[in-house]
Fold:
Amino acid sequence: MADPTAQFKAELSAELENILKYWNEFSVDERNGGFVGRRDHFNKEVPDASKGIILNTRVLWTFSAVANHKKEQSGELRSLADRAYGYLKMAFRDDIFGGVFWEVDAEGNPLNRRKQIYAQAFAIYALSEYHILSGDEEAKEWALELFDLVELHAREREFNGYLEAFQQDWSPIEDMRLSEKDKNSAKTMNTHLHVLEAYTTLYKITKSEAVKEALENLIELFLNKFYDPKNQHFQLFFDNQWNREGNVVSYGHDIEAIWLMIEAAKASGNKNLVNRTQSIAVPVAETFLEEAYVSEKGVINEKDLDSGETDTDRHWWPQAEAMVGLEYAYQISGEEKFKNAIFDIWKFTQEHIIDHENGEWFFRIDENNRTYTQEDKLGMWKCPYHNSRACIVLMK
Structure:
């Protein structure tokens, strides 16, 4: 009888190759430089689509991270990482006020110059990973420069935490939302989570005391502000003084948070924080299995705990994050239910989320496994980072 873990790893390895093949073949913009801004559900390029910072930083992170993981393939991946780094510098870097723009047009001219902290975090994350690959000191210096800007402008000293967004010159902005579906809240779990992962890698490459202090502070915020021990969820939206706004839980963010917190604590070298982050991982994962996971049907998106209204769509990225978070819970607890759920979510992903015709993963499907054809295959938010990262982490 075949070893299911060995088979699982072989399938992940093959899928990582498929993801790379897709992005290598379909994302490079030969006409305007960098990477194309958008491909629709049917994989048709949308002409003259604008280009978002999230897509471009995640592309840089992915090619760098996979090259760091697959040393034997690092040559071909390195050229794509170099391309992504060069385009980031050329099109998205604000040489006047510092930081990175939110969006540029198809030709690389700034369209939206706002400073979203989520975006600065992804730039730090990608540049840090690229530095590991390339040894490029300029990339490391730029990552540290972005860190200093975030700490100076976004870290809120009176009540702690990070504010969401600013105008180009870092002055206050009225509408701080990351996307139209978000609340206009001063502080959000999502942005803090991505600052956390960015600072984790930045600390690994710099060993800076300032980065360590900020990283440990972020872990404490997750333990004390975002995490709700009464229901084992992370709250999403807060005002400046940490009053909760709404009561929606995002299951993908719940399960993603536990493993990113553990990795952050390990990177910091703080044993107390390692113990505390590990102590909440299993309760969060158990609640996740009870509320978000459906046997043979993957992971649902979110729920409003006040109204009970549930979004049962299956988005691509929570399936990926679920497998990683549940693996951490399994490593801590040894409980087979977590391992079984991972294999089951992977089988569901292979059958319904991966697009075997056009490549990559569908953005989302409904509870009856029907795809939403209005969603992109590649776009502002549809990037290779969640699924490629899950493959890398689980193969390790």
Summary: The domain at 4-395 is CATH 1.50.10.10 (Glycosyltransferase).
